[in-house]
Specification:
483 residues, alpha+beta, eight-stranded mixed beta sheet, three-stranded mixed beta sheet, 14% strand, globular
Length: 483
């Protein structure tokens, strides 16, 4: 049954409904894999096996009576630790919240249960979801299954590992700085960052927090593009008072062939030093699709300055997360922000300015964003999508020393700031655009990489459709060796 573990969630749902496998049988197979492999990986530290078994038994009983709960009836699922599940702790890696037990399910958990899944655990994250590594003092470190000395990405690192190793069939993460896209890229799975606002984040927060943070979204990870589509269908839509007055109707995408897409390609940028091994793999994927008729423009770009665009992203990002900055650090940033010049685009300067920004200054950056969104809209009148990297390299070695902003990673044999790759996180993030990461194969260094597919606002199905085409033509998900 090993091959069962790597089938897509929708394939597994079909097998359940065709009575080829039972819901409890499939769950037990996943739980056996957790017991076998997760000791070395530490992807699923919060486990809810007993309630999952009860749920799986109920799913089998329902199916025996002809009842189908949804498109993912009986499919085993884990979810990022940062989501509330009634009766389980939500701590975001913080020791002070290690025993903060949720009293109700998050909206995404409710909706995925409505789609039929069997939730059996929560996957690991970095502290405050603020790293491209997934480690914290409550649950420890999560390792990449392709090389356990390397990070699986973050902040949805445990999510990507659970999928890549066949321990779970479907996942949901969150993304403000590539936290869905980065782990998908590092672990070789699919991930989708939805258009801002179309999926409710209620219940994905620290205790007592209800307001949605700027830029931040929640969305699915999976082993196939179709799974992303099905999960997004389940998740999408407003909640709370918003549900009284509006709904989401995402435009369909009927394009299925490479020759039907016209894309712009930007695989490098001077803002971010890029690993040549990974860039070559991404270029090979683009070239293969071009041979199938995909129309490619390597020079087309939206009409704005990338350096200013990136600076705006960092300031708005740090403004969005600045509310949880401890007072002593905040005061130090106030002093730093007062001493730096307006043309200082270093990360430290932008972080200080963003974290301590006054509302008048935030409004100025928000106005810039409005112009960027218009520029993107004009750009997408001529191009279906923008294809670009997800990060500056494949998964790097664990490095948990010091502050993240001071760390470096090797790029073509030279140390480069780990934070330069925030450019690729912000390319879709700051403008609220949807983007999908699809596996683009295994690089010459033996590690997977993913291509980021940026779509127009609201056209989530277009980037997912392109990912599905890539999957058919280039092979899609490949399990890591040894699992």
């Amino acid at each position: 049954m090993t091959d069962i573990a790597f089938k897509s969630a929708t394939e597994l749902a079909g097998m359940i409904q065709d009575k080829q496998i039972g819901c409890r049988e499939l769950l037990d197979h996943c739980l056996d894999r957790v017991e076998k492999y997760d000791g070395d990986l530490n992807a699923i530290p919060v486990r809810d096996f007993d309630r999952a078994r009860t749920r799986a038994d109920a799913a089998d009983a329902a199916l025996a009576k002809g009842e189908v709960w949804g498109p993912l009836h009986g499919v085993p699922m884990t979810i990022k630790e940062s989501y509330d599940i009634e009766g389980l702790p939500t701590c975001w890696g913080l020791e002070e919240h290690a025993n903060s037990v949720a009293t109700k399910d998050s909206v995404t958990v409710e909706r995925m249960k409505g789609a039929g899944v069997t939730l059996f655990g929560k996957t690991n994250v970095p502290v405050l979801l603020a790293d491209w590594q997934s480690y914290n003092p409550v649950y420890g470190s999560t390792n990449n299954p392709w090389d356990t000395t390397r990070t699986p990405g973050g902040s949805s690192g445990g999510s990507a590992v659970a999928l890549a190793t066949g321990m779970s069939a479907i996942e949901s993460g969150s993304d403000i700085g590539a936290s869905i896209r980065n782990p998908a890229h590092y672990c070789g799975v699919f991930g989708h960052k939805p258009t801002f606002g179309i999926v409710s984040p209620r219940g994905h927060a620290l205790p007592g927090v209800m307001a949605q943070a700027d830029i931040s979204v929640v969305g699915p990870l999976a082993r196939s593009a179709k799974d992303l589509d099905v999960a997004l269908d389940a998740m999408v839509g407003p909640a709370g008072p918003d549900a009284n007055c509006w709904k989401v109707e995402l435009p369909a995408c009927d394009k299925t062939k490479a020759s039907e897409f016209k894309v712009a390609v930007m695989l490098t940028d001077k803002i971010c030093a890029q690993d040549d091994v990974m860039t070559a793999q991404l270029q090979g994927a683009v070239d293969a699709l071009a041979k199938l008729g995909m129309q490619v423009d390597d020079t087309a770009r939206p009409d704005f300055d990338n350096a200013e665009y990136h600076a705006t992203y960092i300031r708005l990002l740090r403004a969005a997360t600045g509310g949880r900055t401890p007072p002593a650090i905040f005061n130090a940033m106030l002093e730093e922000a007062a001493s730096v010049s307006d043309d200082d685009y270093s990360y430290s300067a932008l972080q200080a300015k963003g974290t301590t920004t006054r509302h008048r200054e935030w409004l100025t950056d928000n106005e810039r964003r409005a112009h960027y969104r218009e520029a993107w809209d004009s750009f997408f009148q001529d191009y279906d999508l923008l294809l670009c990297p997800t990060a500056s390299s494949t998964a790097f070695k664990h490095d948990q020393k010091g502050d993240r902003k001071d760390r470096v990673i090797p790029i073509n044999g030279k140390p480069e700031s780990i934070l330069d790759q925030m450019f690729w996180a912000g390319i879709s993030g700051v403008a609220y655009l949807p983007s999908t990461v699809a596996p683009a194969g295994v690089c010459a260094n033996g590690l997977p990489c993913g291509l980021q597919i940026v779509a127009p606002h609201g056209h989530d199905r277009r980037s997912i459709a392109f990912a599905a085409m890539m999957e058919r033509e280039l092979g899609g998900f490949t399990p890591p060796p040894g699992y």
